[in-house]
Specification:
It is a single chain. This protein is α+β, with helices and mostly antiparallel strands. Strands 1, 2, 3, 4, 5, 8, 10, 18 and 20 form a 9-stranded mixed sheet that branches. A 4-stranded antiparallel sheet has the order 9-19-11-17. It is globular. The structure holds succinic acid. The site of succinic acid has 11 residues, from strand 10, strand 19 and strand 20.
């Protein structure tokens, strides 16, 4: 029987708090198991991986994404989204408008720091974002290491969040738009969303990370609105003041995968005159986020 050849890949860390480039891999070709194991380990080690210069159609994007696990469906779009979904597992993120109709979601606005779909009981473990068409400037995506955010929390805050959980708002997306099927206003108690611990144990690394989802409309369950807001403001101020960030400046053909369990991401605004089209998949996680011991 012929021996399986493993492709030699080069793993080049960004030098920042997270992220690495994987060089020497054509994702449109078949990837043997040993090579994929090396990619998976690099992803566990660096939390965000970038593969430049790829040429992927939707089938190939889905096929590569499925190496990481079964896929979730794309999230519910904003109310009155004019675009129709062609592939339920691909989220189309775009500012392009054709004959008055947006071809994708999230438009030109800034996207706040967030973890994808953490308003679900079973949030995805990974997202893969592919640059189909990217502008020369704008729309940079920033990634944040939530292990480091937890590890550098003052001891007082680590003790304070022990045993506390947060409700993650399901009603608005990361640009603040109301999703289809939800009301304009809710109380913290009534707002639809999932409840997850503020400090979670990563199921693969065993390390503890903060688990914040996004700031708008978050609520620390059981606290008064004012006490919840004060605690969340303190946690987010800690994140905002930390240096644990890496910025992805997109080129067409970039494929980026991030670990959604221990990273945040946000996006810069876009110039409406410059086209940007991204296709994203979400890899399902089989389990709820678990509180750190
Ligand atoms: C996302 O939040 O997944 C989209 C990020 C981006 O458009 O760069």
């Amino acid at each position: 029987m012929a021996a399986t050849m493993t492709k030699a890949i080069e793993i080049v860390p960004t030098g920042g708090a997270l992220g690495a480039d994987i060089r020497g891999l054509d994702l449109s070709a078949d990837i043997d198991d040993a090579t994929f194991r090396a990619v998976y380990k690099a992803w566990n080690d660096h939390l965000v991986l970038r593969f430049r210069g790829q040429s992927l159609d939707d089938d190939r994007l889905v096929e590569f994404s499925r190496r990481f696990g079964d896929l979730d469906m794309a999230p519910i779009g904003a109310k009155d989204s004019p675009f129709s979904r062609q592939r339920p597992e691909i989220a189309v993120i775009s500012n392009i408008v054709v004959e008055g109709k947006a071809i994708g979601g999230l438009g030109n606005s800034e996207l706040v720091w967030h973890q994808d779909m953490s308003y679900n009981d079973l949030p995805p473990k990974a997202s893969l974002l592919y640059g189909v068409e990217t502008p020369p400037v704008g729309g940079e995506t920033f990634f944040y290491n939530l292990y480091s955010a937890f590890e550098t929390l003052p001891e007082r805050l680590k003790a304070r969040i022990q045993g506390l959980s947060c409700k993650h708002d399901a009603t608005r997306n990361s640009s603040g738009q109301l999703r289809q099927g939800f009301e304009e206003r809710y109380s913290n108690q009534d707002r639809p969303g999932a409840v997850h611990p503020l400090a979670v144990r990563h199921p693969e690394s065993g390390r503890t990370s903060l688990y914040l989802g996004r700031r708008p409309n978050a609520w620390v369950v059981g606290l008064s609105d004012a006490d919840s807001a004060a605690l969340l403001d303190e946690l987010w101020a800690h994140v905002e003041s930390g240096p644990f960030v890496w910025a992805q400046e997109w080129r067409q053909g970039d494929l980026v995968i991030w670990d959604n369990r221990c990273t945040l991401h946000r996006r810069n605004t876009l110039d409406p005159s410059l086209r940007r089209l991204m296709h994203r998949t979400q890899v399902r996680d089989g389990a709820r986020p678990v509180a750190s011991a």
